[in-house]
Amino acid sequence: xxxxxxxxxxxxxxxxxxxxxxxxxxxxxxxxxxxxxxxxxxxxxxxxxxxxxxxxxxxxxxxxxxxxxxxxxxxxxxxxxxxxxxxxxxxxxxxxxxxxxxxxxxxxxxxxxxxxxxxxxxxxxxxxxxxxxxxxxxxxxxxxxxxxxxxxxxxxxxxxxxxxxxxxxxxxxxxxxxxxxxxxxxxxxxxxxxxxx
Length: 197
Known about the structure:
Number of helices: 8
Helix content: 25-40%
Number of strands: 7
Shape: elongated
Distance between the termini: 29 Å
């Protein structure tokens, strides 16, 4: 039986509707294919509410070659992280991913695919605020600087990278993280979808 990324996403979306941490917050959104670290990596799914939880999917057809570099990127951005892997990858995945990552296993039973929790995720203590800021678009970065720092000039001509440095140097991390979560949940004409949909 061939099991693809789309099959696993469907299982995951159904599981999200039972997650108390997700359903108790009515503004929870699901983002498919979230670019992180200026596009160095792309998380398969991000769930945004009071934190940003990333999901990386490794289907039956996938290999694990890119996983080490993906781990480096995801560790800089996500408050919590879960890898969702087919059972044939499970042993190797346990060796590769950090101990704070959650692990879900996809397996087959009676010609159906099932999802099993192997390990719950823990909080990431090494988030990089500059990389969090890079989740913003340039106009959003400028808005953050104008409303939460004492900087009043010299920012308009700067690149997103330069603006992210300014943000890291001038705004406390909790303010930046809260702002980024709010923006990701409220952008219009974007790929974020409310969980209730």
